[in-house]
Write a structure and sequence with these properties.
Family: Belongs to the cytochrome P450 family.
Number of helices: 10
Distance between the termini: 15 Å
Strand content: under 5%
Radius of gyration: 19 Å
CATH superfamily: Cytochrome P450
CATH class: Mainly Alpha
Largest sheet: none
InterPro entries: Cyt_P450, Cyt_P450_sf
Shape: flat
Order of helices and strands: HHHHHHHHHH
Number of strands: 0
Keywords: Iron, Metal-binding
Helix content: over 70%
């Protein structure tokens, strides 16, 4: 998996191929900010930068945006909500991580149930994204990261037998890190 990430997904050539996305998203951010500009109001860059980052990562990984915006539908709102919940869980204190014999407290507090629910929702979301990618027949030269993973799965290249669950795991790990 490490060689797939280094050689196929995150090579210098592949990262350079996403320059167009970076330029388009940055220009869109500037345009949005200029349209809503009222010189007397303060600027909250937090949400703008989070949105920019999410859009860049989604376009590079999935070939389209998944965020809360125009024309993105329910899947965009779901993905944004999932990312917010994942961020909350990453910052949550898990007693079982520090004192394993008190891990049962995570069940009582509801943390384990929330982790399971969010994981299942991510699993469902990534399954839908993968199914959409497999169903469409793009003859576009520009491949996103999911296209590359699906191509590796199809070809069996790199001596790796990759199934859909492996692809979902790679996508989830890339979102967390």
């Amino acid at each position: 998996m490490r060689s797939i990430c280094v050689m196929q997904l995150l090579s210098a050539k592949r990262v350079k191929s996403f320059r167009m996305y970076r330029e388009e998203e940055t220009a869109e951010l500037i345009k949005k900010r200029a349209q809503s500009c009222t010189c007397s109001s303060p600027i909250d860059l937090s949400e703008l930068l989070v949105s920019l980052t999410r859009n860049l990562i989604c376009r590079a990984a999935f070939g389209r945006k998944y965020g809360e915006g125009e024309g993105e539908g329910e899947s965009g709102r779901t993905f944004k909500k999932l990312l917010e919940e994942l961020g909350e869980m990453l910052g949550a204190f898990s007693v079982g991580d520090f004192i394993p014999w008190l891990g049962w407290l995570d069940q009582v507090s509801g943390l384990d149930a929330k982790v399971e629910r969010v994981f299942n929702e991510f699993d469902h979301f990534f399954s839908a994204v993968i199914d959409d990618h497999m169903a469409r027949q793009d003859d576009d030269d520009h491949m996103d990261l999911l296209d590359i993973l699906l191509q590796i799965q199809k070809d069996g290249s790199n001596g790796v037998c990759m199934v859909k669950e492996h692809i979902k795991a790679i996508l989830l790990v890339s979102r967390v890190s």
